[in-house]
Amino acid sequence: MKSIVVYYSWSGNTEIAAKTIAAATRSRILELREKAARKLPWVYVVGGFQAILGIRSRLAKETFDLKGADTVILCSPIWASSPVPAVNTFLAKADLKGRKVAVFFTLGDDKPPLKAFKKAAALIAAKGGKFGGSGHFQVPLKGKAAPGMMKTAVKAFIKKIRK
């Protein structure tokens, strides 16, 4: 499996997951950065509203080098049970045709992000990609994720997508 890990992280927790996945799978890594930085307290209110509506954000770089990768591992927080605007932009503009796309979400909610997985799977299929599995990690609402717990979730995810 030749893969690339593509991620967006607002608080840093998803970045930890993405880098852990990239190291474990020996993948290249690509960070999605928004042109305009999101600031508290509006990040979740405005960002959540945009996520629900499927709105895309403007990224610092909107061309994505996926050459040589047959698998894309997409890591992202979810806001309001939906992929974040930066991920919406990636999924709309990236060449996913014929590629397997696995999704790993970080979230503050204690419920599995089934709605977000369905939305991501539909966006992936619309671009000709094949949904290649999913995983998630619940992050504490305050503070950073415990590295040991994150690694356990990442290992389970990698095992699942390698099947």
Protein described:
By secondary structure, this protein is an alpha/beta fold. The protein has a single domain (3-161), classed as Rossmann fold (3-Layer(aba) Sandwich). Helices cover 38% and strands 23% of the residues. It has five helices and six strands. The chain has helices spanning 13-25, 42-53, 85-93, 114-126, 147-161, and strands at residues 3-7, 28-31, 71-79, 82-83, 100-107, 130-138. Strands 1, 2, 3, 4, 5 and 6 form a six-stranded mixed sheet that branches. Helix 1 (13-25) packs across helix 5. The longest helix is centred in the last third of the chain and has 15 residues, at 147-161. The protein is globular. The mean pLDDT is 90.
**Helicity range of the residues?**
25-40%
| Main beta-sheet annotation | 6 strands, mixed
H/E series, N to C? EHEHEEHEHEH
Structural class: alpha/beta
Main attributes of the structure:
single chain; 163 residues; alpha/beta; Rossmann fold; 6-stranded mixed β-sheet; 23% strand
